[in-house]
Design goal:
The structure holds 3 protein chains of 3 kinds. Chain A is built from 2 helices and 10 strands. By secondary structure, chain A is mainly β. Chain A has a single domain, classed as CheA-289, Domain 4 (OB fold (Dihydrolipoamide Acetyltransferase, E2P)). In chain A, strand 1 and strand 2 form a beta hairpin. The longest helix of chain A has 6 residues. Chain A starts with 15 loop residues before the first strand and ends in a 13-residue tail after the last helix. Chain B is α/β, with parallel strands linked by helices. Chain B has a single domain, classed as Response regulator (Rossmann fold, 3-Layer(aba) Sandwich). The chains are: A mainly beta, B alpha/beta, C alpha+beta. Chains A and C meet through strand 4, strand 5 and strand 7 of A and helix 10, strand 22 and strand 23 of C.
């Protein structure tokens, strides 16, 4: 029953999970919808002194200070633009609330576990360490991001570990 | 003289309970946890059960519930040993079918006066 | 019958040591603990607590109570088994073991250490992390208090002696809990002279009788010197399975409690519909009395308080927002502006009052810290052969709970230092013409928006020459013609100690630099005044709360930052003549003969500034732990009260910044950390 053509379905089978898909440059990515808290327009941020370039700054989200990360900068996408489609996906990962800047949010799709294939060693701008796998959605290839691994990655520096003041 | 089942995982407390009850002329069966207590209860009907609440394998509340399910123990007084802070536990115990409770710390005198209440 | 319980003590000790070993093994596991492991740890603690009380080791029992409660919260999922809790529990295991060993060997244990660990456990228990737990627990506690005040209300009045009339109407299920009305009556008969009248109205025809149901009810009369509480105690086990009316004969009904109140709110336990809060049993041992003593103070879950603090924070923000509109609204007519301003004044006052009221929930008297000092002073002066009179003033001064906890260590250190290094031996004091006994004064009080804690002694005071010599010997930079104040500050430098002999008491381990860091970590400041031969006074100045800060907003290019007002000494527009360059050390501002390093904030934070030349902008002279610094900014904007928000909740610590706040326009502004800024500046050069 579950071949790629029937992905978009009303069937909430037990094994299916929902993903929010978004674009980074030319690539389409998916993250588990359970981690998505809300989607906001990109608004100006307050810079954090001496932070890495991809940490755009922080915003006030109803009294909570939320850091905004631009993965396009982190993963050296050739073109980083902020336009009317640019949105921030607010995620709740590891009890941290963070926002990631994406080029556009596309869709919510349901995917069964057996529709996800392991990611090859190349093919995406993101390091495979942070990829959970690939899935085909019609003609499109969807890259599924392991957002927790990404947030915990030392190079992102969100987790304080070796940070010295 | 009654047959009393004493269930407690703490050897020292059990020793004290058993010793006190035996001194008073009762027949005492000991068990170190709920599972052993239930087995003992099944093999020899007791007139009174005194059980601790926090025990490995099966806790006192579950033991009460299991006992109340046995025809022989429908009306048997079952006292739980509890600490004064655990109002919640008393309620939980009552809901499971316990008769009453004995608040820790207690001494032999208090034990005797308490069981008098159910054994008459 | 008397039974000597000491014969069971050996068994108790054996099993307790076993339990402690088990706790230790589980706690030291490298992996995360699963539910059963946590349960096993809890049971061990629970068991020790219960048995210790029974066998007469109430100190062990009391101490273990906190650990047990904490473990209970972990086991119920109200709290996570963090490394911190594991560490704390291991510490608790050590204390229990020490206490039990002492009990076994008849030796003494160290009650201070026990108290310390207890304090830490208590602090952990009241910390906000256990939020779901406290949430769930609070309504239950409130219920039972309410229920008890109903049930035991008569207790506070002188209880009349009998006769009592008792109407006892059991529910039909009563027998199924193993309770027997006759047992209860036997119990009552021991209290006084009991007359039992059985009412059989409810009995059905014999054929329909179910032997398991209790369908009788009773009217009892009890004569004698009996208190109502004692009567109720007899019905304690069946309170939720009967209606009970206890009435003093010849007087209006004292209290009436009907357990199966149909309108009772959702019972905490769903098993039986008759389990209503009104029927909550009252512990036989006088627990309700204890609770009533507590009634003067409210126990509030810290997370709720934190929510309130956040709400007030929002209110403060809103107020700031309206303020912004009010001051920029030029299209309103003069009258409207006048009204708006008036409204704003009111809002501001209301906000402040609400804020104070809410914050006060978190306040505790400083006596929580001070109360330990009589002991510390006595022990230490005995050890050192000194005579010290301790005076405590203002111990009722309240301060934030979070602050109290963080003050214990630094204040203890200062007090020990004062006795060790400050107050002289009786001989020396006599030689100096002073009374043999020195005086140590601990004083707490308010001053402006701050809490002031003073620790003063009438000892020998600081010795300027000795400090200077010591500082030079350690290669510290000492300014020429340094003022006394500058020299006393050297005492707070890392690794500094003037004591000629390093004593066990305060000469080793942490120094005054650590004390200063601890105080500054809570936005406090430390000052020292001393007169040789007359004594030393150390003043700790603390903010009223950790949640709100008085700040000055400053602008650098397009960025706005907040500087804590307490750190600001002055601000000025420097003249070109005041600016100098010192090779290798950057630029300095000359101010009344002092040279203060210039710290251009835009360089430090790497942001474009409006003004490149300090003489075009403003320098704000701030005082950091180590030194003063002249922060160069574009503009001073305004003074605000700001609500401190953590950056670390979702991000991480940022050098130069202690937190963030939300400004009137909804934007985030960073709160600058002056110490960290000057250090940052040091690394740039």
């Amino acid at each position: 029953m579950s071949h790629p053509g029937t992905l978009r379905t009303e069937d909430h089978g037990a094994a299916k999970r929902e993903l929010l898909t978004f674009r980074l440059g030319e690539e389409e990515y998916g993250i588990d919808i359970l981690q998505v808290q809300e989607i906001r327009r990109y608004e100006s941020v307050t810079r954090i002194a001496n932070a890495p370039e991809f940490v755009k700054g922080v915003i006030n989200m109803r009294g909570t200070i939320v850091p905004i990360l631009d993965l396009r900068i982190k993963f050296r996408f050739p073109e980083v633009v902020y336009d009317d489609f640019t949105v921030v996906v607010i995620l709740n990962v590891d009890n941290r609330v963070i926002g990631i800047v994406v080029d556009a949010v596309s869709d919510v799709i349901a995917l069964a576990a057996d529709e996800v294939r392991d990611a090859p060693e190349f093919g995406a701008q993101l390091d495979t360490d942070y990829l959970e796998g690939l899935a085909s959605v019609g003609e499109r290839m969807l890259i599924i991001v392991d957002i927790e691994a990404l947030v915990r990655a030392p190079e992102l520096g969100l987790v304080d570990a070796e940070f010295a003041a | 003289m009654a047959t009393i089942l004493a269930v407690d995982d703490s050897a020292s407390l059990r020793q004290m309970v058993v010793f006190t009850l035996k001194e008073a002329g009762h027949d005492v069966i000991e068990a170190a946890d709920g599972v052993a207590g239930l087995e003992a209860a099944k093999s020899k009907p007791a007139d009174l059960v005194i059980s601790d609440i926090n025990m490995p394998h099966m806790d006192g509340i579950t033991l009460v519930r299991e006992l109340r399910g046995l025809p022989d123990y429908k009306f048997t007084p079952i006292l739980l040993l509890t600490t004064e802070s655990s109002d919640e536990k008393k309620q939980e115990g009552k809901a499971a079918g316990a008769t009453g409770w004995l608040v820790k710390p207690f001494d032999p005198e208090k034990l005797m006066s308490t069981i008098k209440r159910v054994l008459g | 019958m008397t039974i000597d319980i000491s014969q069971f003590v050996q068994a108790f000790l054996d099993e307790s040591f076993e339990g402690l070993d088990l706790m230790e093994v589980e706690l030291l596991r490298e992996q995360a603990l699963d539910a059963e492991q946590v349960n096993a740890i809890f049971r061990a603690a629970h068991s020790i607590k219960g048995s210790a009380g029974t066998f007469g080791f109430s100190a062990v029992s009391d101490f273990t109570h906190g650990a047990e409660t904490l473990l209970d919260e972990v086991r119920n999922g109200k709290r996570e088994m963090t490394p911190e809790i594991r560490g704390l529990m291991l510490e608790a295991v050590d204390r229990m073991r020490e206490m039990l060993l002492a009990a076994r060997d008849g030796s003494a244990h160290d009650p201070d250490r026990v108290a310390e660990t207890s304090g830490r456990i208590e602090a952990m228990l009241t910390s906000a992390h256990g939020c779901p737990g406290t949430d769930a627990a609070t309504p239950v506690a409130a219920d039972s208090t309410a229920a008890q005040s109903g049930v035991t209300h008569g207790e506070s009045r002188p209880t009349p002696a009998g006769p009592w009339e008792i109407l006892f109407v059991p529910q039909s299920v009563l027998l199924r809990s193993g309770n027997d009305p006759l047992g209860i009556f036997a119990w009552l008969a021991e209290l006084g002279e009991l007359t039992v009248h059985c009412e059989t109205d409810a009995l059905p025809a014999l054929g329909a009788l179910v032997a398991e149901d209790c369908l009788l009810h009773w009217r009892l009369r009890l004569d004698g010197e009996v208190e109502e509480a004692a009567i109720r105690e007899a019905f304690e086990w069946v309170e939720d399975q009967c209606s009970l009316i206890v009435r003093h004969l010849g007087q209006p009904p004292a209290t009436v409690s009907e357990a199966p109140a149909a309108s009772a709110p959702a019972a905490p336990l769903d098993a039986q519909p008759q389990t209503a809060p009104g029927g909550r049993p009252v512990a036989a041992n006088g627990a309700p009395v204890e609770r009533r003593a507590d009634a003067a103070s409210i126990r509030v879950a810290t997370d709720k308080v934190d929510t309130l603090v956040n709400m007030v924070g929002e209110l403060v923000i809103t107020q700031a927002m309206i303020n912004t509109i009010g001051h920029s609204a030029d299209q309103l007519d003069a009258r409207a502006v006048e009204q708006l301003r008036h409204g704003l004044t009111l809002l501001e006052r209301n906000t402040r009052e609400l804020q104070e009221a809410v914050l006060s929930v978190r306040m505790l008297p400083i006596n929580f810290v001070f109360s330990r000092f009589p002991r510390v002073v006595r022990d230490l002066s005995n050890t050192l052969g000194k005579q010290v009179n301790l005076r405590i003033i203002g111990e009722e001064t309240e301060l934030d709970k979070g602050l109290i906890e963080k003050l214990v260590d630094p204040l203890t250190h200062i007090v020990r230092n004062a006795i060790d290094h400050g107050i002289e031996s009786p001989e020396r004091r006599r030689a100096a013409g002073k009374s043999e006994a020195g005086t140590l004064v601990l004083r707490a009080g308010h001053q402006g928006g701050n809490i002031i804690i003073e620790i003063s002694d009438d000892g020998g005071g600081l010795n300027r020459e000795r400090i200077l010599a010591k500082a030079r010997a350690q290669g510290m930079a000492v300014p020429e013609n340094a003022s006394d104040r500058d020299i006393w500050q050297l005492v707070f430098a890392p690794g500094f100690s003037t004591a000629e002999t390093v004593t066990d008491v305060s000469g080793r381990g942490v120094g005054m630099d650590v004390v200063r860091r601890n105080i500054e970590a809570v936005n406090g400041r430390l000052d020292i005044e001393s007169t040789e031969g007359q004594g030393t006074r150390i003043t700790v100045r603390l903010p009223l709360t950790l949640a709100i800060l008085d700040g000055m907003s400053v602008r650098v290019g397009e960025e706005v930052y907040i500087l804590p007002l307490t750190a600001i000494l002055e601000s000025l527009q420097p003249t070109p003549e005041q600016l100098h360059t010192i090779s290798g050390r950057g630029r300095v501002v000359r101010l009344r003969g002092d040279y203060i390093p210039l710290v251009p904030l835009h360089n430090l934070f790497n942001v474009p500034a409006t003004h490149e030349r300090p003489e075009d902008g403003i320098v704000v002279v701030v005082e950091s732990a180590e030194d003063r610094a002249a922060l160069f900014v574009d503009e001073l904007i305004a003074q605000h009260q700001v609500v401190i928000k953590s950056l670390e909740t979702n991000y991480r610590k940022v050098p130069g910044v202690s937190g963030a706040t939300i400004m009137g326009d909804g934007r985030v502004a960073m709160i600058l950390d002056v110490d960290s800024l000057t250090r940052l500046h040091g690394t740039v050069h």
